[in-house]
Write a structure and sequence with these properties.
With 243 residues, this protein is of the alpha/beta class. It has one domain: Rossmann fold, CATH 3.40.50.10320. The chain contains 7 helices and 9 strands; from the N terminus they run H-E-E-E-H-E-H-E-H-E-H-E-E-H-H-E. It has helices spanning 3-6, 49-64, 79-92, 115-128, 144-156, 185-198, 210-223; strands spanning 7-10, 28-31, 37-46, 67-76, 98-103, 133-137, 161-165, 179-183, 230-235. It has a 7-stranded mixed sheet, sandwiched between helices. Helix 2 links the parallel strand 3 and strand 4 (67-76). Helix 3 runs antiparallel to helix 6, helix 4 packs across helix 5 and helix 6 (185-198) runs antiparallel to helix 7 (210-223). The two termini are 17 Å apart.
Length: 243
C-alpha cells in the first residue's frame, strides 16, 4: 500500500479535531480505512525498545484496524531477555491478524562494529517484508546501537512511511518530535503494565518505571493538545501527501 493510499488528510473537519489557540483546527492525518489490511514493521535494537517507543501506538492500531500484520524484530537479546521479549510481544500483538516475532543475537553495544552483518540481515528482511508503516529508532538517539538500526532503516527502505520513536535514558537525548499519536490513559497504563510485568531484568534501572512511561506520554499529549491527554511522539523525516 502506497503512502498516498495509507494516509488521508482531513483539513479541520473532524468532530474530534484539535483546536488551536486561534480557533482553527489542526490538520489531521488518518491511517487509511479500518477495513483494509495494514502491514507494520517494528524494529528495535534491544528487548523492550519497541514496547517503550511505540507500544501504545501498536495497541491503538490493533484496536482500530480489523486486519493488521506485524513483523516485530529485536536485534540483540540474551537468553533471559529473549524470553522476556517474546512474552511482551505476545501481549502487545494479541489482536494482530498475523504476527511474526524475530529475536536476533547481535552483540549489544557493538552494533557500529557489526555493521556488515546487520546490513545483510536488513537486506534479507527487505526481500521478505513490504510494510505500510515502519517504526524504528530516532536518528539522533545517543545509544550507538539505536543509531545503527535507524540508519540502516532509512538505507534499506526508500518508499515507505518511517516513524522514528524515542527512548528516555540517562544521556538526555529527547528531541522535538513532529508527529503524535493521541492515546487514552487506559492504553498508556496497559503499555506500562506489560513493560513492568514482562521485563523483570530491567526493574533495577532507575529510569525503568511506570511513572517514566506515563509521564512522557502525558508531556507528549500536552505538546499535541491531545483530546485524550496522552500521546506517543515520533519523528517523521519524509512524507508525501497527495491532496
Amino acid at each position: 500500500m502506497a503512502f498516498r493510499e495509507l494516509v488521508g488528510v482531513h483539513l479541520g473537519k473532524s468532530e474530534r479535531g484539535w483546536v488551536s489557540g486561534g480557533g482553527c483546527k489542526m490538520v489531521q492525518l488518518q491511517f487509511g480505512q479500518s477495513k483494509e489490511l495494514l502491514r507494520v514493521l517494528c524494529l528495535g535494537a534491544h528487548s523492550d525498545d519497541i514496547e517503550i517507543g511505540c507500544g501504545g501506538t501498536i495497541l491503538r492500531l490493533l484496536a482500530q484496524f480489523r486486519y493488521v500484520e506485524v513483523n516485530w524484530i529485536v536485534f540483540s537479546s540474551g537468553r533471559e531477555r529473549k524470553a522476556e521479549a517474546l512474552n511482551s510481544a505476545s501481549q502487545f500483538l494479541a489482536k494482530a491478524t498475523r504476527r511474526e516475532v524475530t529475536i536476533r543475537n547481535f552483540p549489544g553495544s557493538f552494533f557500529p562494529f557489526k555493521g556488515e552483518a546487520i546490513k545483510a540481515f536488513f537486506e534479507r528482511v527487505k526481500r521478505q517484508v513490504s510494510p505500510d508503516i515502519i517504526f524504528t529508532h530516532y536518528r539522533h538517539d545517543l545509544h550507538q546501537d539505536h543509531r545503527v538500526v535507524s540508519d540502516f532503516t532509512w538505507n534499506t527502505w526508500r518508499n515507505h512511511l518511517i516513524l522514528e520513536y524515542e527512548i528516555p535514558k540517562y544521556d538526555g537525548d529527547m528531541g522535538v518530535p513532529n508527529m503524535f499519536i493521541p492515546l487514552d490513559e487506559a492504553t498508556v497504563r496497559t503499555k506500562a503494565r506489560i513493560l513492568m510485568d514482562s521485563f523483570k531484568t530491567q526493574r533495577t534501572k532507575q529510569w525503568f518505571s511506570e511513572d517514566t512511561f506515563c509521564s512522557l506520554a502525558r508531556i507528549r499529549g500536552v505538546e499535541c493538545n491531545s483530546p485524550e491527554r496522552y500521546a506517543e511522539a515520533f519523528y517523521c523525516r519524509k512524507a508525501t501527501i497527495q491532496l
